[in-house]
Amino acid sequence: MFELLLNYFSLSRILIQLKNPKISLFSFFDKKCIISQNARIERMVILRDTKVQDYSYIGHSSNFLRTNIGKFCSISRNVNCGLPSHPTHFISTSPIFFSPNNSTGTNWVKGDKLYDDLPSPINIGNDVWIGMNVSITSGINIGDGAVIAAHSVVTKDVPPYSIVGGVPAKILKYRFSSDIINQLQKSEWWNKPDQYLKDNLSNFQHNIDHLDDMKIS
């Protein structure tokens, strides 16, 4: 937390804030973060070693660690992604026994940390919708176009354009047929120039029931 506070008052933070006023003054992120000028970060969001790409937004009181977030993602409030781990094969899981700087506020360990509690990186694709109060464990890959229902705990990779939910989260259904999913991924519309998307805005404003309904390529 000290590093987050230190960066909060840094010149680099001020410059990022000036370039993107959609980043709340009451959010916190470290120097390892990369935040698009087109992204939106709401209040009390904590980002560490995280990348947020174009037109994605993160709802208030969310916490992300070592996460890559693609474009056009809709992330609700109270989402936790990439939580630190604890040793399960030590006598105790308490960080007081393995980390000099830990949540107990007491330092018994001298020197280096004895257990690597950093989570493996998490990758969230493009156009992903994550409901409120979702937790995503370390090393997970979320496919493009996926939907994660509110209050879910994601412990396994999520396929593109699937809808998952529950504790642990399971596939409930897919948003489209396999043909449509393949065409959507092939198009990579999220990488198109802004002007192309604006010119084709009407194609994003109706139901896609059949492959012929898609007007993008």
From TrEMBL:
Keyword set includes Chaperone: no
UniProt GO MF annotations: acyltransferase activity
Entry annotated with the keyword Iron: no
Pfam family name, one: Hexapep
InterPro entries: Hexapep (IPR001451), Hexapep_transf_CS (IPR018357), Trans_hexapeptide_repeat (IPR050179), Trimer_LpxA-like_sf (IPR011004)
Stretches assigned to coiled coil: none
Keywords: Acyltransferase, Repeat, Transferase
Family to which the UniProt record says this protein belongs: Belongs to the transferase hexapeptide repeat family.
Name assigned to this protein: Acetyltransferase
Species assigned in the record: Cyclobacterium qasimii
